[in-house]
Design a protein that fits this description.
Layout: H1 13-25, H2 30-40, H3 42-78, H4 85-103, H5 109-117, H6 121-128, H7 133-145, H8 157-180, H9 188-204
């Protein structure tokens, strides 16, 4: 290739690096860079839109779970009973949902196991249903040895399905609450909306916007 054909107006690598340093020193932020990329690439616009919708979906699910838990707590106080397993289950579903997706937008199997191992034996019983001592030992071993940490092959579907299984149980509790609440109660309509949100999440993982 003749050297005369090279466009001498193009910046060299060293010049590009220097410009990047200057931009950093000027205080350009990651957020600014991300917005520039999103504006420049259609694919990233789709990613940003989907991420926003997913975030709104999770926020709606958490609000729905909290509303059902609140109704359960209120009924317990009315009946002068200690908090029962139903309220604890909904609270655990909310806590696991929040903690796992706070750590990563695509939680791995290992992170799921770690989250369960942080629970008390009683809480594990609620989530796993039959977590024997052998189960707890096997879970601890797999987390320690890293057998479940094949992140490159983990698309987050395992954790999502586990959470959906929990949410299904919360829907059952929500419907039971709905039947016990008078139709003219201020909680009747919010409960119906909460159940619809959770049902939409479980069925297809998406909501109508």
């Amino acid at each position: 290739m003749p050297f005369g054909d090279i466009d001498r107006d193009e910046p060299t690598l060293a010049e590009r690096v220097q410009r990047a340093k200057v931009d950093i020193l000027k205080g350009h932020t990651v957020e600014t860079d991300w917005k520039c990329l999103v504006d420049s690439h259609v694919m990233l616009k789709d990613v940003a839109r989907d991420a926003k919708m997913r975030g709104e979906l999770f926020a709606n699910v958490l609000c729905a779970l909290e509303l059902i838990a609140d109704v359960l707590r209120t009924s317990e106080k009315t009946e002068d009973e200690a908090p029962n397993q139903e309220t604890a289950l909904v609270g655990l579903a909310s806590d696991l949902f929040s903690s796992l997706y706070t750590v990563s937008p695509i939680p791995s199997r290992k992170q799921w196991k770690e989250a369960l191992l942080r629970l008390s034996p009683e809480e594990q019983m609620l989530v796993v249903r039959e977590p024997t001592p052998a189960w707890a030992k096997a879970a601890a071993d797999t987390v320690r040895e890293g057998d479940l940490d094949a992140d490159e092959d983990d698309d987050g579907s395992f954790v999502e399905e586990e959470l959906k299984a929990l949410v299904k149980r919360c829907i059952v509790l929500g419907r039971r609450c709905k039947r016990s609440v008078p139709n003219d109660s201020s909680k009747s309509q919010p409960l119906s909306e909460a159940i619809n949100i959770l049902t939409s999440y479980v069925n297809d993982g998406a909501l109508e916007w």
